[in-house]
Amino acid sequence: MRPWILPLVLLLCGAVLAAGAALSGAPGAAPPAFLVGFVVVAVVHSPLVFPRPIRATEAQRRSAADGHPIVYWRPGCTYCLRLRFRLGRRARAAHWVDIWRDPAGAAAVRAVNDGNETVPTVVVHGRAHTNPDPSWVREQLAARR
Protein backbone atom coordinates (compact mmCIF):
# COMPACT_ATOMS: atom_id res chain seq x y z
CA MET A 1 0.00 0.00 0.00
CA ARG A 2 2.89 2.36 0.76
CA PRO A 3 3.86 2.92 -2.91
CA TRP A 4 0.32 4.10 -3.65
CA ILE A 5 0.08 6.73 -0.90
CA LEU A 6 1.61 9.58 -2.91
CA PRO A 7 -0.44 8.91 -6.08
CA LEU A 8 -3.64 8.62 -4.04
CA VAL A 9 -2.91 11.89 -2.20
CA LEU A 10 -2.25 13.59 -5.54
CA LEU A 11 -5.53 12.29 -6.97
CA LEU A 12 -7.40 13.43 -3.88
CA CYS A 13 -5.84 16.91 -4.06
CA GLY A 14 -6.74 17.15 -7.75
CA ALA A 15 -10.31 16.12 -7.06
CA VAL A 16 -10.66 18.62 -4.20
CA LEU A 17 -9.20 21.47 -6.27
CA ALA A 18 -11.36 20.59 -9.28
CA ALA A 19 -14.49 20.41 -7.09
CA GLY A 20 -13.58 23.70 -5.43
CA ALA A 21 -13.08 25.39 -8.80
CA ALA A 22 -16.37 23.99 -10.08
CA LEU A 23 -18.29 25.14 -7.01
CA SER A 24 -16.75 28.62 -7.06
CA GLY A 25 -18.00 29.23 -10.60
CA ALA A 26 -14.61 29.06 -12.32
CA PRO A 27 -14.65 28.62 -16.11
CA GLY A 28 -15.84 25.18 -17.27
CA ALA A 29 -12.42 24.08 -18.53
CA ALA A 30 -10.60 24.71 -15.23
CA PRO A 31 -11.84 21.73 -13.16
CA PRO A 32 -10.95 19.11 -15.78
CA ALA A 33 -7.54 20.79 -16.28
CA PHE A 34 -6.83 20.56 -12.53
CA LEU A 35 -7.89 16.96 -12.46
CA VAL A 36 -5.99 15.94 -15.61
CA GLY A 37 -2.82 17.59 -14.32
CA PHE A 38 -3.02 15.80 -11.00
CA VAL A 39 -3.85 12.47 -12.66
CA VAL A 40 -0.77 12.77 -14.88
CA VAL A 41 1.48 13.57 -11.92
CA ALA A 42 -0.07 10.74 -9.89
CA VAL A 43 0.53 8.20 -12.67
CA VAL A 44 4.15 9.31 -13.09
CA HIS A 45 4.74 8.82 -9.36
CA SER A 46 2.97 5.48 -9.20
CA PRO A 47 4.45 2.00 -9.56
CA LEU A 48 2.65 1.74 -12.91
CA VAL A 49 5.49 3.57 -14.67
CA PHE A 50 8.07 0.95 -13.73
CA PRO A 51 8.41 -2.63 -14.92
CA ARG A 52 6.86 -5.16 -12.55
CA PRO A 53 9.14 -5.40 -9.51
CA ILE A 54 10.56 -8.70 -8.34
CA ARG A 55 12.13 -9.79 -5.06
CA ALA A 56 15.83 -9.11 -4.48
CA THR A 57 16.67 -12.82 -4.27
CA GLU A 58 14.94 -13.49 -7.58
CA ALA A 59 16.67 -10.48 -9.18
CA GLN A 60 20.06 -11.71 -7.99
CA ARG A 61 19.36 -15.19 -9.36
CA ARG A 62 18.23 -13.82 -12.73
CA SER A 63 21.12 -11.36 -12.94
CA ALA A 64 23.62 -14.15 -12.29
CA ALA A 65 22.04 -16.13 -15.13
CA ASP A 66 21.64 -13.40 -17.76
CA GLY A 67 24.08 -10.68 -16.64
CA HIS A 68 21.48 -7.90 -16.69
CA PRO A 69 21.71 -5.14 -14.06
CA ILE A 70 19.56 -5.03 -10.94
CA VAL A 71 17.92 -1.67 -10.27
CA TYR A 72 16.81 -0.99 -6.71
CA TRP A 73 14.19 1.79 -6.66
CA ARG A 74 11.18 3.15 -4.79
CA PRO A 75 8.02 4.93 -5.96
CA GLY A 76 8.14 8.72 -5.82
CA CYS A 77 11.92 8.92 -6.22
CA THR A 78 12.66 11.57 -8.85
CA TYR A 79 16.07 10.08 -9.64
CA CYS A 80 14.43 6.68 -10.19
CA LEU A 81 11.91 8.31 -12.52
CA ARG A 82 14.70 10.02 -14.43
CA LEU A 83 16.53 6.72 -14.83
CA ARG A 84 13.35 4.89 -15.88
CA PHE A 85 12.40 7.47 -18.51
CA ARG A 86 15.92 7.81 -19.89
CA LEU A 87 16.23 4.04 -20.29
CA GLY A 88 13.02 3.90 -22.31
CA ARG A 89 12.19 0.44 -23.65
CA ARG A 90 15.53 -0.91 -22.47
CA ALA A 91 14.34 -0.60 -18.87
CA ARG A 92 12.46 -3.88 -19.19
CA ALA A 93 15.75 -5.75 -19.63
CA ALA A 94 16.90 -4.79 -16.12
CA HIS A 95 15.65 -6.48 -12.98
CA TRP A 96 13.71 -3.92 -10.90
CA VAL A 97 13.42 -4.33 -7.12
CA ASP A 98 11.06 -2.01 -5.21
CA ILE A 99 12.75 -1.52 -1.84
CA TRP A 100 9.45 -0.53 -0.22
CA ARG A 101 7.94 -3.91 -1.12
CA ASP A 102 10.98 -6.06 -0.45
CA PRO A 103 12.82 -5.81 2.89
CA ALA A 104 15.72 -7.85 1.49
CA GLY A 105 16.07 -5.30 -1.32
CA ALA A 106 16.08 -2.44 1.18
CA ALA A 107 18.73 -4.26 3.22
CA ALA A 108 20.87 -4.79 0.11
CA VAL A 109 20.71 -1.06 -0.65
CA ARG A 110 21.57 -0.11 2.94
CA ALA A 111 24.52 -2.52 2.86
CA VAL A 112 26.16 -0.71 -0.06
CA ASN A 113 25.14 2.87 0.86
CA ASP A 114 26.46 3.24 4.42
CA GLY A 115 23.09 2.38 5.97
CA ASN A 116 21.06 4.71 3.75
CA GLU A 117 18.30 3.63 1.38
CA THR A 118 19.67 5.74 -1.48
CA VAL A 119 18.06 4.87 -4.79
CA PRO A 120 18.40 4.22 -7.60
CA THR A 121 21.15 1.78 -6.81
CA VAL A 122 22.18 -0.30 -9.80
CA VAL A 123 24.13 -3.53 -9.33
CA VAL A 124 26.15 -4.79 -12.29
CA HIS A 125 28.20 -7.98 -11.87
CA GLY A 126 27.95 -7.72 -8.09
CA ARG A 127 29.21 -4.11 -7.98
CA ALA A 128 26.81 -1.42 -6.76
CA HIS A 129 26.53 2.04 -8.35
CA THR A 130 24.43 4.64 -6.56
CA ASN A 131 22.44 7.02 -8.78
CA PRO A 132 24.47 6.24 -11.91
CA ASP A 133 24.20 8.20 -15.11
CA PRO A 134 21.33 6.78 -17.20
CA SER A 135 23.52 6.65 -20.32
CA TRP A 136 25.97 4.40 -18.46
CA VAL A 137 23.10 2.08 -17.45
CA ARG A 138 21.92 2.02 -21.09
CA GLU A 139 25.44 0.95 -22.11
CA GLN A 140 25.38 -1.82 -19.53
CA LEU A 141 22.04 -3.05 -20.83
CA ALA A 142 23.23 -2.91 -24.46
CA ALA A 143 26.38 -4.88 -23.59
CA ARG A 144 24.28 -7.69 -22.09
CA ARG A 145 22.19 -8.44 -25.18
UniProtKB/TrEMBL annotation:
It holds the Pfam family Glutaredoxin. Residues 71-127 form the Glutaredoxin domain. Residues 1-18 form the signal peptide. The keyword rRNA-binding does not apply. Keywords: Membrane, Signal, Transmembrane, Transmembrane helix. The chain crosses the membrane at residues 34-54. This is Glutaredoxin domain-containing protein. It comes from Yinghuangia aomiensis.
